[in-house]
Amino acid sequence: MRTKIVAGNWKMNTDIKEGVILASEIDSELKNITLPEDVKVIIAPPFTHIAFVEQVIDHKKILIAAQNCAAETEGAYTGEISAKMLKGMGSEAIILGHSERRAYYHETSETLVKKTEQVIQNEMIPIFCCGEKLEEREAGNHFNVVKNQISEALFHLSESDFSKIVIAYEPVWAIGTGVTASKEQAQEIHKFIRKTVADKYNQKIAGDLTILYGGSVKPGNARDIFSMPDVDGGLIGGAALNADNFIDIIKAII
Ligand code: 13P
Predict the structure, then answer these.
(1) Distance (Å, rounded) from C-alpha 33 to C-alpha 42?
(2) Does the C-beta of 88 come closer than 6 Å to ligand 1?
(3) Cα–Cα distance measured from residue 104 to residue 102, given in angstroms and rounded to the nearest whole number
(4) Which CATH number fits the domain that encloses residue 120?
(5) Is the pTM of this model over 0.90?
(6) pLDDT per residue over 107-142, tens digit each?
(7) 76: CA distance to ligand 1 center in Å?
(8) Separation of 75 CA from ligand 1 center, angstroms?
(9) Is 216 in the pocket of ligand 1 (CB under 6 A)?
(10) Which of 173, 212, 216 to mutate to test the pocket of ligand 1 (most atoms within 8 A of CB)?
(11) What's the domain range around 217?
């Protein structure tokens, strides 16, 4: 069964108090909504908030994700936070390879191979981000860029490990810009991702793969984008920082 997901990536926003309030608001609004069995809601607060946010949500309805993790298991890596630590705090998923991490922290496919391994070893869901820059799309290179990002970081995985992956397609030109990919653009590349996975693994794994769209998803455009057959939900940035907006986006998938 293919799971649908609406995930909120809070990025580096909110202090702990604000984060706990936001999570509580989302939690209480969700009490009035019956989520279908195939729909998951995820929130990804900053590391520092996870242990607090974890206490104010109903885990049957909301999963917690971290936004990153260390590539190593443990040891002398000052300032790093391991997948095991995040799991211990209550994380059930980890966002990996977000374009902001690739751009500002020079995250490479090589690092992402290691991080993915950490997340899988610690029995969490890797939410693997991919997506092209504007100039890559304008040059007609977006299919290649996305294929390379996925194959370099993930295609060494066994069938059983690959089936744990969630992919988030986030075109860099649509992130935080207010410009959303059209539903046709999203469908085209999601379908391509699914075919790439089918060619490498098989139809069953590709058919069960959850592929999220991210990039300026708002209550006003979510239903349209989620209506496409290969779009299985969204990774939401700015609109996830407001409980009403986030809930409206969740309602767009049910
Ligand atoms: P926005 O929804 O703010 O464009 O951010 C998308 C994103 O980067 C989610 O990871």
Answers:
(1) 15
(2) no
(3) 6
(4) 3.20.20.70
(5) yes
(6) 999 999 999 999 999 999 999 999 999 999 999 999
(7) 32
(8) 32
(9) yes
(10) 216
(11) 4-253
